[in-house]
Amino acid sequence: MSEANWYVAHTYSGYENKVKANIEKTIENRHLQDQILEVLVPMEELQEVKNGVKKQVQRKMFPGYVLVNMIMNDDTWYVVRNTRGVTGFVGPGSKPVPLTEAEIKALGMNAAVLGEADAEYKVGDSIIVTSGVWEKTVGMIKSVNAGKRMVTINVDMFGRETPVELSFTEIKKM
Question: What structural domains and CATH numbers belong to the chain?
Fold first, then answer.
């Protein structure tokens, strides 16, 4: 079995999150979890002043690009390349070229951004959701999946505790 590498897929501008969601749905439908390990839209947190008010905003580090950690083969290439909104891989012609360690560092991305296991979050931590449907929701982490960079929290929905899975990029510690 080949080694997984990070590849860069070029997308239509503004479609990065939609492409990420579509690839993740295809991974689930085709049971490719062991071949396409992770799909990322790297975000950075900035302070923006608008009308004299400072606020934290998240911006895409590389608009028009999605990072994919996968084992390159015909199936994975086809899935990513034929996802709606993807215009192709970064590389000469139609041959995708994996990112090297030096390129990853040059892009200003640390190991945590690229999904290396870290102890940033652990069960029992209180967090606040910073983006998405559950934005501003406060919760306690019930489980952590460092490989997928996901946590599970319980939220109160219709008077019941309901588990919700969130990405590390959608939350921060309180």
Answer: 5-106 (3.30.70.940), 126-173 (2.30.30.30)
